[in-house]
Structure prediction request, 216 residues.
Amino acid sequence: MFGTDKADGHFYLQHYQKHFRPYKFKNIKLLEIGVGGYEHHDYGGHSLRMWKSYFWHGKIHALDIYDKSALQENRIKIFKGSQVDLKFLDKTITEIGDLDIIIDDGSHINEHVITTFKHLFPKLKSGGIYVIEDTQTSYWKDKGGDSDNMNNPETMMSFFKSLTDGLNHKEYVKPGYEPTYFDENIIAIHFYHNLIFIYKGQNDEPSNLIVNNQRG
Ligand SMILES: C[S@@+](CC[C@H](N)C(=O)[O-])C[C@H]1O[C@@H](n2cnc3c(N)ncnc32)[C@H](O)[C@@H]1O
Prediction:
């Protein structure tokens, strides 16, 4: 579909459809890290065109380390910079405004994925979704992964697994425990084959998830 490997290569679309359906007709803002096509300035953008078609009223933004401005069109805006350049990320987010959906399909380097998430998740709207693609690199040495120690804290799978306990932080029998930002702002984490969806919100608010699912 639209030439993106999200369909045939990885079979992610079934999961995207399930999680994104409640947003399909909303006036959302999406940011995808990684345009595709690497150094070829006029190649890539397949997923951006798919998102534009799927989200009828969505504003689609993307960033890539290479200049991809040639691929911009109505409702698709592309920024040039690295996903681990925090100043660039701040400037980009200030220009875009509040984001409903962030998808990390960039370098897939473990350290990058974790750094980008730590910086951008706090900028996501409450009720928003943060997606990490291609988590298989969590096991690949050349991307900073590890196939021997599944609890290596430098890998993305280990990092995201570590956030799951925080969903239950109110149940800890640990007087004086200070909840982390992630404890207080993550309401669900869905792990699939090579793909993770992280939902932002607060557990003691009426659940955005329930409202969304009823609509979906
Ligand atoms: C797998 S492709 C993206 C594919 C596209 N999202 C799609 O589904 O059609 C990865 C892209 O990430 C870009 N990239 C690699 N390292 C990056 C970094 N540090 N910051 C931002 N983009 C990066 C590459 O230039 C490449 O275009």
In short: Residues 4, 6, 32-38, 44, 46-47, 63-66, 82-84, 105-107, 112 surround S-adenosylmethionine (CB under 6 Å).
